[in-house]
Hints:
about 35% helix, 3 domains, about 10% strand, five-stranded parallel beta sheet, two-stranded antiparallel sheet
Amino acid sequence: MARVAYRFTFLDVLLEGEDRAQESHGCRGGRAHSAPPRGETETGASTEEAGFGAEAGMRRYAQSLPKPKGGLRGPENVGSLGHPLLCQRACVHAAAGRHCEAGDGCEFCHVPHTRGMKLDGHLHRHMEAMSKADFLCVTLRLLRNKAHAAGLRDEALEALEALFSVFTSELQREKSAKSEKPEKSEKSQNREPGELLPNKPFPRRLLRYLLQASFAAVVSLAARKCGEEGRLQAREAMQALRIAQGFANGFAVATTILSEFTGQTALFRPGFGWLNSVCTVSVSVLDGYFGSSAESTSSPPSAAPPPFAAPAPVAAAAPAMAPTAAPAPLGAQPATAPPGTAEERRSDGLSLFCFAWTPRRGYDEQLLVEVRKQYAKCDGHVFYTDKDSGGDEEPDFVRVELPTQKVSRNDKGWLYHRNMVGLMPAWSHLLSSSFVDAHDWFINSELDHFLSPARARKNIAQYKETAKAGDDEPMVLMWGNAF
């Protein structure tokens, strides 16, 4: 009968006839075996009893271990933008299953990463020994191939070319510095900087690592070979690329009919559209395409005034606004401020007004530069924030009053759990402002969601044509992911 013996902190299951003494006869001095030899038992426990006891003990031990907290994957942070191609290194806290105190401001990626080759000291020495021109020749070609294989979106191509131009300029400067030396061949002189081949054979193991590494990792290694100015430019271009690609991946819009609630009266406003990048319940009520004003509304209360057949002039339709909320001309661009008359609006009915809510945390402030570039292509824009947020008083910011919250604004989880707390106050201000009658379509986007005004206008125009011509299919306008 098999029995269990406890020896040197190990549990041995000994079959009948096996002797522990065999270990001392010729086995101790030899090489280690994959399993210890069986021997005499020291206890009288049966196999079944020992098996159940060992299993119960391991179960108790496993249950005593600290359990990871639920919901470890928080909202996408600045380091996760562009995952998996463009993101930063993995956050050690998120990778270990712990809560990252930095939250969405963490500069490292919170999304799980797959294991690959490790850049060990041997590969480091290979890179250090290579010339700047040789290494940039290979990495620039690899980066172009990786970008092509990944199918980076059109919105990221501008930032991508800016990144490539940094390394190309560094390569050209390196060639200029060596211009006094005799050229190797006429063929090498005629090649473009990005098509140059290294003068020395490239180490195969290093090439294998670069082929497996992410786009961001190769950029980081190539930037090390550049000068100080080149490194800074590469980092800035890479961050712009992360933001552009991250916006494109998370860009989500869908449309449906929106009701504007004024007390108990629901009015459908022709010519007004809501495109929201997070909530898929958004608006598209098309001016003049749904028949007469009586047909534009769906059985409103008898006391409700008829919906507007066309946008009213600003002076007649815009209610008085609170002094703290009335936006001045926003920024230096005249298109940001609402036009004085409806005639100043675009004639194609595609005047876009973009706005976003932000609590002005550190992560948001880093995105404002890129977001303003996108918003500049709209016909107007504004950023809404709460009165308790920091930051300078900028002309394109409007502060609104937030409803009382149970969670303090200073709480670390306030942004995560209350990120949308200012969205309804922002909408309330917008609906009572002159912006409503100065533009045709209103796009509410999050700062970390990419916005392409040109694409939005194109899709809206197609949507309007479908609404005018008629179609048996449901009319839904959507970009990117829908949640």
